[in-house]
Amino acid sequence: MRLGTTLPQFGDAVDEADRIGAFAAAAEEAGAASLWVGDRLLAAVDPQVGYAGTDTIPVEFRRALDPFALLAVAASATSRATLGTSVLVGPLYPPAVLARSLGTISAIARGRLVAGLGIGWSPEEYAGAGLDFDHRGARLDELLDGLDTLWSDTPAPLPGPRFPLPAAHVDTPRERPALYLSAWTETALRRVGQRADGWLPVGRLPGDDLEGQARALRRFRANVDAAATEAGRDPAAVGTALRVNVAAGVDAAAIADGTRRLVDATGFTEVFVDPMYVAPGLDASLDLVREVLRRVA
C-alpha cells in the first residue's frame, strides 16, 4: 500500500496557510506517499445541490485555500511524495489556463503531479465562474482535448465551441502530469477507460458495510477496464487512487484498520485519507497522519 493524505485546505486551515509547506515536508518525512488538494470555489448559502448526496454543504467549505497555490508550496517543500488534485472542477478552467498552471506545478515538482479532474456538483460554483451548469461532461471532454493539444509538440487549433483557440505556441513548461478522472456514472467511467491515466474513486469511514463499498468499487473498476479494452488500451495501464473520506469521531486505529480492509477488498494499493473532519488543525492533523502511517506500516 502507498498511503497518503490530503493537505489541510479548508475551514480553520485557512488561518495557518503559512505552515502548509512545513506540514507537507513533515508528512512526507513521516512516510506519506502522496499529498492531495481539493477545489472549492464557494459554498452556497442555499444550495440547489448539496454535498455527497445531502441537501447541505459542510461548514468547512465556507473557507478554502487555492489548490494551485498549495500544490506549488508543497512541490517546493517536498522531493518524493506524489502531489495530486482530488479533484479540480475541470470545466471551470479554460484549457490554456489549466495547462499553464498544471504544467508549471509539474515542472516544480519534477513530474510528481497527478491532475485529478471532475465535473463538479455545485450549480452555484458554475454560476460564480460565469458558466452554465448544463453539458458539464461535454465541457470536460473538450477540456481534455485542449490539454492534449496544448501539451503536444505540434501546435494545432482548437475548434471546439466552448474553448476555441487558434494554433498557438505555449511558452510555459510542457511537463504533462498524469490525468486522472473522478467518475461514477457509466458514461464517466467509460471516459476514464478510453482516455484517462487513472481513476479517482472514493470510500468512506466509518463504514458499516466495507465489503459492500468494496463490491461497488470493484464493479465500477470493471467498467473502466472494459472501456479501456474496447478502446485498445491496456487496462493495467489505467491507475487507481482511492480517496478515503473520514467522518468526525474516527480515531487513528479505526482509520488504519478500515483503510487496510478497503485496500485488501479492492486491490487498490494507491490510497489517501482525508482527516479534515477528524483533526481540523494542522498540528492535530499531522499527529493523526503520523499515527495512521505508523499503524499501517
Could you describe the 3D structure shown?
By secondary structure, the protein is of the alpha/beta class. It has one domain (2-296): Alpha-Beta Barrel (TIM Barrel), CATH 3.20.20.30. 40% of the residues lie in helices and 14% in strands. It has nine helices and eleven strands. Strands 1, 2, 3, 4, 5, 6, 7, 8, 9, 10 and 11 form an eleven-stranded parallel beta sheet that branches. Strand 10, helix 8 (252-266) and strand 11 form a beta-alpha-beta unit. Helix 1 packs across helix 2. The termini are close together. The mean pLDDT is 95. Its EC number is 1.-.-.-. It is an enzyme of class 1 (oxidoreductase). InterPro entries: F420-G6PD/mer, Lucif-like_OxRdtase_Rv2161c, Luciferase-like_dom, Luciferase-like_sf. Keywords: Oxidoreductase. Residues 15-270 form the Luciferase-like domain.
H-E order: EHEHEEHEHHEHEEHEEHEH
Helical proportion, percent range? 25-40%
CATH superfamily: Luciferase-like domain
> Which second-level CATH architecture applies?
Alpha-Beta Barrel
Structural class: alpha/beta
Count of alpha/pi helices: 9
What's the number of extended β-strand segments? Answer: 11
Mean pLDDT: 95
What count of domains describes the coordinates? 1
Oligomer: single chain
CATH structural fold name: TIM Barrel
Distance linking N and C termini: 9 Å
Query: Rg, please?
Result: 19 Å
Indicate the overall shape. Answer: globular
pLDDT < 50 runs, ≥5 residues: none
